[in-house]
Amino acid sequence: xxxxxxxxxxxxxxxxxxxxxxxxxxxxxxxxxxxxxxxxxxxxxxxxxxxxxxxxxxxxxxxxxxxxxxxxxxxxxxxxxxxxxxxxxxxxxxxxxxxxxxxxxxxxxxxxxxxxxxxxxxxxxxxxxxxxxxxxxxxxxxxxxxxxxxxxxxxxxxxxxxxxxxxxxxxxxxxxxxxxxxxxxxxxxxxxxxxxxxxxxxxxxxxxxxxxxxx
Length: 215
Fold this sequence. Notes:
Blueprint: H1 2-33, E1 37-43, E2 58-64, E3 83-84, E4 99-100, E5 114-121, E6 137-144, E7 160-172, E8 177-178, E9 181-182, E10 187-195, H2 196-205, E11 209-214
Antiparallel strand pairs: 1-2, 3-4, 5-10, 6-7, 6-11, 7-10, 8-9
C-alpha cells in the first residue's frame, strides 16, 4: 500500500513536470509568433562602387523588428537612381550610408609633407565603435603587444599618439542579410592623411602592436 502511494506521487510529479514543459513551450512559441516584423530593402546582387542603383538591384526582405538597424531603408524611392557609395555584396541591407546622390570622385591630394595611408580595423572597439566620419580629425594610438619581443627597436615598445584626418571609409560586410538576422560591420578600412614619418611608423607597427582611434 505504501509503495503504491509513493508510486502514485511519483507519477503525479512526472505528469505535472510534463504539463509545465508543454505550457512553457506553448508560451514561447506564441511569443515568437507575435513578434512584429517589418520589410526593409536589400541589394540582390553584387555592385561596384559608383554603380547606379535601379529597380533590378534591390528587393524587399522581412526582418523581426528588433533586428532592423535604425539606418535601414524602407522606401525604394530614396535609393533609386542614386549611386553606391562603396562595393556592395549580394544580400546587404541597404542603409543610409550605402548610397550617394552623385558619383564619388576621389581626387584628393595630401597636403605638403603629408601622405595618405590606410589601416584595417577588424572590430568596432578599435575604431571608436565605428562611429567615425570622413573629414574628422582624430588621434591614432599605437600600443605595443603584450610580451613584445625585446629585440625590437625601442620606438615600438612605447605607446604613441598621432594626429590624423580621416579621408575615406570603406565598410566590410556591413549589415549583410541572413535569414531574418543581420550582421553589423565586421571590419572597416580607413584612409588617413598624416605626416609622412608618422605614416611610415604606423605601417611598420601594424604587426607589432595595436592601433586604435580616439576622438
